[in-house]
Amino acid sequence: MDDAVLERIFRDEYGRVVASLARRFGDLDLAEEAASEALVVAVEKWTADGIPPNPGGWLTTTAGNKALDRLRRESRRDAKHQAAFMLADDTPPEPTGPVEDDRLRLVFTCCHPALAPEARVALTLRLLGGLTVPEIARAFFVAEPTMGQRITRAKAKIKAANIPFKVPEVEDLPARLDAVLAVVYLVFNEGYLAGEGESPTRVDLSDEAIRLARVMRVLLPDEAEVAGLLALLLLTDARRSSRFAGGELVPLSEQDRAGWDRSLIEEGHALVRECLARVARGEGRPGRYQLLAAINAVHTDAARAADTDWSQVLALYDQLQRIDPGPVVALNRAVAVAELDGPDVALAIVDRLPLTSYHAWHATRADLLRRVGRTTEARQEYDAAIEATGNAAERAYLGRRREQLV
């Protein structure tokens, strides 16, 4: 059996299995351990007998049995043990929030206010997205042991504080929203450009993030940042099929725009217009995701890269920088500055940013150095960018650009 097929199934189903077991047993460690045991059994069973018609259901059932076996072995004859057996039948569970979705329920559990913000995102990426500790550590720019400890402490906090596995009631949702949106966006980003491996994307993660954003949109139809996030994901994902060619990443300026998904672009533009209408009615100022969506709307509105309204892009980044003044925003803003004021002006901005461990900083700096004719330094920056990224398609693109230097 093709290992790639097994890996894809496991990636697709891991979050569903863990979320289902977490809701059923109320124990994250048990859910993770049982899910992992089920995957081990699946490798042996499916290699011999073939993949079952419903692999997700098979994994969930097997993992549930493994969890019950573990409880029996450990002789945990408490209320939790009894509850687990009660839920083993086909009786539907009692309602546990305004939306009945195990994965969304798990997101909100992991984003409980009792947990530190960085722990909320990391834990959800681990449990829902099935990302490894190294993948999450790279997303946060921290050491692997630090991230492992952070996730372990977060799970212990949920257990000790008896945090319920449920979607909050509608009146409690806004206070929990920022962390949930951040989680969904990070899951999408890891899927849209995988941090490592020979596959440049993880479509299972980007699709799952869009699915969650759509569920959130139904849950909170009047929340502009939810609409903004969904618009951002759709407008970004619309370019998926044009982002790679010949094993290489294709930058936005070189993509075949005829290959973009027009239906996703139209849906994303409609959401951006809805957000703009809210602002025009005086219903608050646009937040981070609305501004990022608006920037992507400008890019996807241009028939050719040369038609991009860079002055509008820069104005939107200026707004974004005022509410989210981080170095990554400044780096992306510098790209727009380069188009309007020249690469030398942008390079002066980039050189001041504390992002020397970030591959995109090196890649951006390499391109700007190339454009101002500082070839030797550009070559060094391309080398640093290649070293800092684990994505094979991105490495191939950067390597080709390096070889083109004269």
TrEMBL record:
<feature type="domain" description="RNA polymerase sigma-70 region 2">
    <location>
        <begin position="13"/>
        <end position="77"/>
    </location>
</feature>
<dbReference type="InterPro" id="IPR013249">
    <property type="entry name" value="RNA_pol_sigma70_r4_t2"/>
</dbReference>
<feature type="domain" description="DUF6596">
    <location>
        <begin position="176"/>
        <end position="274"/>
    </location>
</feature>
<dbReference type="InterPro" id="IPR007627">
    <property type="entry name" value="RNA_pol_sigma70_r2"/>
</dbReference>
<dbReference type="InterPro" id="IPR046531">
    <property type="entry name" value="DUF6596"/>
</dbReference>
<dbReference type="InterPro" id="IPR013324">
    <property type="entry name" value="RNA_pol_sigma_r3/r4-like"/>
</dbReference>
<keyword id="KW-0731">Sigma factor</keyword>
<dbReference type="InterPro" id="IPR011990">
    <property type="entry name" value="TPR-like_helical_dom_sf"/>
</dbReference>
<keyword id="KW-0805">Transcription regulation</keyword>
<dbReference type="Pfam" id="PF20239">
    <property type="entry name" value="DUF6596"/>
</dbReference>
<dbReference type="InterPro" id="IPR013325">
    <property type="entry name" value="RNA_pol_sigma_r2"/>
</dbReference>
<comment type="similarity">
    <text>Belongs to the sigma-70 factor family. ECF subfamily.</text>
</comment>
<feature type="domain" description="RNA polymerase sigma factor 70 region 4 type 2">
    <location>
        <begin position="108"/>
        <end position="158"/>
    </location>
</feature>
<keyword id="KW-0804">Transcription</keyword>
<dbReference type="InterPro" id="IPR014284">
    <property type="entry name" value="RNA_pol_sigma-70_dom"/>
</dbReference>
<protein>
    <submittedName>
        <fullName>RNA polymerase sigma factor</fullName>
    </submittedName>
</protein>
<dbReference type="Pfam" id="PF04542">
    <property type="entry name" value="Sigma70_r2"/>
</dbReference>
<dbReference type="InterPro" id="IPR036388">
    <property type="entry name" value="WH-like_DNA-bd_sf"/>
</dbReference>
<dbReference type="Pfam" id="PF08281">
    <property type="entry name" value="Sigma70_r4_2"/>
</dbReference>
